[in-house]
Automatic annotation (TrEMBL):
One of its GO terms (cellular component) is GPI-anchor transamidase complex. The active site is at H168, C210 (nucleophile). GO terms for molecular function: GPI-anchor transamidase activity. This is Peptidase C13 family-domain-containing protein. Keywords: GPI-anchor biosynthesis, Membrane, Signal, Transmembrane, Transmembrane helix. The chain crosses the membrane at residues 368-386. Pathway: Glycolipid biosynthesis; glycosylphosphatidylinositol-anchor biosynthesis. It comes from Crucibulum laeve. It comes from the Eukaryota. It holds the Pfam family Peptidase_C13.
Length: 388
C-alpha cells in the first residue's frame, strides 16, 4: 500500500513539473506587451516630465490670463508632475488686488467652485521677474550661479517638457508685462539651443493669445509638437465674465482644454489626437491650430500623460550583469532639491534584469526541486523497507 502511494505521488509531481515547464506563458513577452514594446504603442522614451507655465500679462483687467496659467498648473500637478519639476512664471497681482472681492483667491468660473490659488502653490518667477530674458534663460539653462535650483529647468535628453504661454499677442510676438515682447524667432532659437545642449526629449508647446498659431511657425528643431488658440489675423476670446469679480475669468481655448483634461487621470490612454479632436470652433470662437511635422510620433500613439503626467519608467532588457544593482543612481540631475515634494521622475530607471528574475531559470529550479523531493521520498521508502 505504501508503494502504491509512492507511485501516485510520483505521477502527480511528474505531471506538475511538466505543466510548469511546458505550458508556462512567455513571461518576457507578457512584460514587453504590458509596457508597450510589442509595436502596438509608440513610446516616448523619456524618463521625466517638466512643465514651464507662463502668464505674460499683469494688471487686474488681465485676471483671466493668470487664471489660465493657474488652471494648467493645477492640472499638471493633479496628473503627477511635482512642484520641483514645474517652473511657474506669474504676475501674481490679482489674488491680493484691492479690487478682488475674494482676497487671496483666483477663480476660473463664475460659480467659483474651485480656488486655483489657495495655499498649495509655488510661484518661481513673480511680478517683474517675469521677463523675456528670464524665460529664455530658464529654457536654455544659461543662469547666473546665484540662481537657486528651485528656479532652474534641470532637464536632460530624456526629459519631456510642456511649455504653456498665455497673454496678449499678435503676429509672431507675445507681450511680456506690457513692457517688452518675445518673438516667434526667439522661442524657436531657444528650443534649438535646448536641442543642441540635449535639454529635452520632446517638447509640447501650447499658447493661448491672439494670432497664437504664428508663434510656432518658426520652429525648426526636432521632436516638437505645438498647438495654439487662433489663426494669423484672428483674435482669441475670453470665455465668461464674473459679475462679482468684474472681469473675464478665463479664456475660451484654455477653458475647453482644461475641461477635456478633467476627464484624464494618471493611467489614462487618451492621446494627443483625442485632445486635438476635442477642439470645437463654435465653442472656442477661434480656429485652434496644430503643428506636428517636427514631431516624430503619430499623434494617435502619443499619450497625453507623456507631457502632462509623471513618469515611473521601466525598461525591459534582454540581459544584464547579475551584480548590477536593480536601481542605478542617475548620472544627470533630475529634480530640484529645495522643494518639499520629491520628484518621482528623478528616480532612476527600474531595469528588469533577465525579465522577472529569468522565469526560465525559475521553472528549471522548480523541476529540479520536485525531482529531488521524489528521490528523497523514494530513499525514505526504501530505508523503511530495509528495516522490516
Amino acid at each position: 500500500m505504501l508503494l502504491l502511494s509512492f507511485f501516485h505521488l510520483f505521477l502527480y509531481l511528474s505531471s506538475w513539473t511538466w505543466r510548469t515547464s511546458a505550458t508556462s506563458p512567455d513571461q518576457e513577452q507578457i512584460v514587453r506587451d504590458f509596457f508597450g514594446k510589442d509595436g502596438s504603442t509608440s513610446t516616448s522614451g523619456h524618463t521625466n516630465n517638466w512643465a514651464v507655465l507662463v502668464c505674460a500679462s499683469r494688471y487686474w483687467f488681465n485676471y483671466r490670463h493668470m487664471a489660465n496659467a493657474l488652471g494648467m498648473y493645477r492640472t499638471v500637478k493633479r496628473l503627477g508632475i511635482p512642484d520641483s519639476n514645474i517652473i511657474l512664471m506669474l504676475a501674481d497681482d490679482a489674488s491680493c488686488n484691492l479690487r478682488n472681492k475674494f482676497p487671496g483667491s483666483v477663480y476660473a468660473n463664475p460659480g467659483r467652485d474651485l480656488d486655483l490659488y489657495g495655499d498649495n502653490i509655488e510661484v518661481d518667477y513673480r511680478g517683474y521677474e517675469v521677463t523675456v530674458e528670464n524665460f529664455i534663460r530658464v529654457l536654455t539653462g544659461r543662469m547666473e550661479p546665484s540662481v537657486p535650483r528651485s528656479k532652474r529647468l534641470l532637464t536632460d535628453e530624456r526629459s519631456n517638457v510642456f511649455v504653456y504661454m498665455t497673454g496678449h499677442g499678435g503676429n509672431e510676438f507675445l507681450k511680456f508685462q506690457d513692457n517688452e515682447e518675445i518673438s516667434a524667432h526667439d522661442i524657436a532659437d531657444a528650443f534649438e539651443q535646448m536641442y543642441q545642449k540635449k535639454r529635452y526629449n520632446e517638447i509640447f508647446f501650447m499658447i493661448d493669445t491672439c494670432q497664437a498659431n504664428s508663434m510656432y511657425s518658426k520652429f525648426y528643431s526636432p521632436n516638437i509638437l505645438a498647438t495654439g488658440s487662433s489663426l494669423v489675423g484672428e483674435n482669441s476670446y475670453s470665455h465668461k465674465n464674473d459679475n462679482d469679480i468684474g472681469v473675464a475669468v478665463i479664456d475660451a481655448f484654455t477653458h475647453y482644454v482644461l475641461e477635456f483634461m478633467e476627464g484624464i487621470n494618471k493611467t489614462s490612454t487618451k492621446t494627443m489626437q483625442d485632445l486635438f479632436d476635442s477642439y470645437d470652433v463654435s465653442k472656442i470662437g477661434s480656429h485652434p491650430g496644430v503643428r506636428s511635422d517636427l514631431f516624430n510620433r503619430p499623434l494617435d500613439r502619443a499619450r497625453i500623460t507623456d507631457f502632462f503626467g509623471n513618469v515611473a519608467h521601466v525598461e525591459v532588457t534582454p540581459s544584464i550583469e547579475a551584480e548590477t544593482p536593480a536601481f542605478v543612481p542617475p548620472t544627470t540631475p533630475g529634480q530640484k532639491s529645495e522643494r518639499a515634494i520629491p520628484s518621482q521622475s528623478a528616480l532612476p530607471s527600474l531595469t528588469t534584469s533577465q525579465p522577472l528574475m529569468d522565469m526560465r531559470w525559475l521553472n528549471n529550479w522548480r523541476v529540479a526541486r520536485a525531482w529531488t523531493s521524489v528521490a528523497l521520498l523514494g530513499a525514505l521508502i526504501g530505508w523503511v523497507g530495509l528495516q522490516k
